[in-house]
Amino acid sequence: MTTGVQMQARDRCFCEAGAGIAHSDPEVRAGSNRLLETAEALTDRARRQGTVRADITGEDVLLLSRAAYETAAPMGEGAPDLWRRHLHVIFDGLRPEAARPLPHPAPTSAQFAAVMDESATSSDASALRSEHNSAGRRDVS
Q: Which of 14, 40, 52, 54 is the most exposed place for a label (fewest CB within 10 A)?
């Protein structure tokens, strides 16, 4: 998880691809699916070992890793390692000690995939509007 957040902090394109912006590309989508499968397998192993809360999913881990970067992003170069602080807060929250019931269930795999698809579609539309505007035409959206 630390390496993933570090990659997001160093490379915004990596972050955007992970968020679904490039999911219309079949290779990126396949890589994203493998990432989700790996996250779920590792999270399942950690749950069985008792090192993470029993109610944490692979989807949770992927979304939380994005959160660690996004919360620090506004500070930019002023505090380039701030994401490490937020990641450690997340790690503490993932531990099973003193865990309390969560107020909302984790997204299902289908919900997660639907959001990624929606993100890719809206990003494609946004890119088309941008191309349209840069060609000197008026945006009608």
A: 54
Tokens of 65: 């890793």
Q: How far are the Cα atoms of 14, 43, 49, 86 from residue 53, in angstroms, in the given order?
A: 28, 10, 10, 18
Asked whether 56 and 47 are in contact (CB, 8 A), the reply is yes
Q: Could you report the per-residue pLDDT of 20-31, keeping only the tens digit for each? A: 555 677 887 788
Round to whole Å and give the CA distance between 18 and 121. 14
Tokens of 16: 């955007």
Q: Which single residue is written with the structure tokens 């989807």? A: 59
**How many CB atoms lie under 10 A from the CB of residue 12?**
11
> For residue 43, what are the contacts with CB-CB under 8 A and spacing of at least 6?
52, 56, 57, 58, 60, 61
pLDDT in tens, 88-126: 888 898 899 878 888 888 888 888 878 777 665 554 444
Determine the Cα–Cα distance for residues 21 and 19; give it in Å rounded to an integer: 6
